Amino acid sequence: MLDRLRPHLSTTALALLIFYFAANGFTGEGGLLRANQRSATLTAKTRELARLTAQRHDLEVRAQLLRDESLSADLLEERARSVLGFADPRDYVIRLNP
User: Fold this and answer.
1) For residues 26 and 32, is the Cβ–Cβ distance under 8 A?
2) How far is CA 54 from the centre of its chain?
3) 3-state secondary structure of 67
4) How much is the pTM?
5) DSSP per-residue string spanning 4-45
């Protein structure tokens, strides 16, 4: 019986290999059926990149204003009050419990 199946063994192995790669092409990590998920991930990452780029730009501007060449008195006062915990007598202070 094994002698009768021997000629078809290579064809069967090749067919199984083709089936494996075809199934992986449809449902695998980069498969055709995962295109919507990749698009949603790309959209989310693009939004996150835009948010982080804006945050970085804001931090760069604030750092530039704290340098000796272009010191901003308002920003320096804001940072000093925040770090030291002081408030101007004319300020309204609302305390929040952590």
Assistant:
1) yes
2) 14
3) coil
4) 0.51
5) HHHHHHHHHHHHHHHHHHHHHHHHSTT-GGGHHHHHHHHHHH
Summarize pLDDT for 68-88 with one digit per residue, the tens.
777 777 777 877 877 877 777
- pLDDT at residue 67 in the model: 75
- Reported for 51-57, long-range contacts at CB under 8 A and 24+ positions apart, including other chains, are none
Angle (CA) 35-41-45 rounded to 5° is 145
State both tokens at 49. Answer: 């990149």
Exposed/middle/buried for 79, CB within 10 Å: 0-12, 13-18, 19+? Answer: middle
Tell the residue number behind the tokens 């929040």, with chain if given.
Answer: 96
Q: How far apart are CA 75 and CA 72, in angstroms?
A: 5
